[in-house]
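Complex record, two chains
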Amino acid sequence: MKPDLSVAIGALALRGPVVAASGTFGYGTEVPLLERRALGGMVSKGIFLRPREGTAPPRIAETPSGMLNAIGLQGPGVEALIRDYAPRWAEWDFPVLVNINGESAAEYGELAARLDGVPGVAGFEINISCPNVEQGGLYFGNDPRAAAAVTEAVRKRTKLPVWVKLTPMVSDIGVIARAVEAAGADALCAINTFVGMSIDLNSYKPRLSFRTGGLSGPAIRPLAVHLAHQAARAVRIPVIGIGGIARAEDALEFLVAGCTAVQVGTATFVNPKAIAEVHDGIGAFLEARGFASVADLPRYLPCD
Amino acid sequence: MFLFDAPVTGKRQVARGMFVIGMQAPEIAAEVRAGQFVNLGWAGGPLLRRPFSVYRAEGEHIEVVLKAVGGGTAQLLAMEVGDRISCLGPLGRGFDLSDAQRGVVLISGGLGVAPMPLAARDARAAGMLVTWVHGARTAAELCAETDGDQVVWATDDGSQGLQGTAVAAAPSGDFVLACGPNRMLAAVAERWPNAQVAVETYMGCGTGVCLGCAVPLARGGYDRACKEGPVYRAADVDWSVLPSHLPYAVSA
């Protein structure tokens, strides 16, 4: 019998455990060779209330088994998103969550209020972990009170699912995880990119114009599995694992480590079919091991 | 857009340190236009794919031209006939030859020869006379396969053709297509604001989703070399912000 790949993230049912990660999938309209059947869901490119230009080039640099990026949340602003993309999402057979950003807790709340009820918007991923903006971003994500305040500001303005994307740049991710859970988050996404830097030995300057960037890709996977596991041990709400997933085995590590679902990001740049391959590979693994569903996978979550 | 593993069909040297690699990629060969590129990945290679302008396309085959500037390109050059390269393309917006003139001037600097054989082919098919100006640091680095109704050489050291840059050596013309280091393209923009130029940038995905290949525009803001580009009207790019030289090397 084919295993059941569906998972539940709180009240939100996903038909598969693999979600497209924010910033690696645009608005879902431009990904080439997309196999929609394999998508459990999608998180849009991060959006602010107003349009943003993003950072000057160079914006990306490859590093061993990874990449640094400093895009700076370039985007058209929420009104353009509502006008140009949400109507298309409303026709798709998987949920699209909007990755929301702001320079203050109030701005996050305003964005949620503006998007709440817009057909095509199935929920929110609060980005309190972007390393590439001057204001906000991970400055909210590494302070439990600020993280909770942002979560609460969004929670008050919507009944849609609210996920919170955590930064790894903290000394104890459990503290932040518990703070946003208490503030009303429905799920956690662990983790966003690590802050990194790479130097060009010709110019004697950083290779990115923003100086630093967010490190993603297989290089961060074991760090991410550990942090997702720590977050999962700290809370009762579901954790969605992110970080360097390129193959089904990578995703299964996060699931066994305590995650309910996963997001695939950078791998899509390399292999436009990565999400479908991860989805199908999880199904094949469950079938080969005799598990009826994703929920039946053994979880390594010892009690403290 | 297609994605498949293309077998290597051959390799040849066209200048000192410059090589052409051929691949069997029928779908791409049939569709590709001058100035478009393919994004290549290979087993054991760097994490991200590497973008290459399509150099030639004939029958079932496409070719790309490269220099060994880092570990990744060295791996590509070490490939044998029959080895497979994951090929995604054709990508980007190529040269627009729809407004055919009597003649076209192609200007290429160094590895900027990459899109020009296709540009020459398509310009001839559109009934244009092709003048091709090709520059390099020295005679040995000039691509041997430059081809046109008229060919002008330029070398920094004067060892072949005119001494100086390809831009300085180019005759006047109304219809100019150029490719080369971004500094050279900035000089093209000064002399021919309406020239079509193919820019070089770092790229993440090559397909428009990552926004990593930002090209600063003269009117403000950025767009994507992989989607709106890599070919631009020269005067539309803010050359002061576009990084001037990107050695395609990987620190891995």
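Note: The longest strand of chain A covers residues 96-100.
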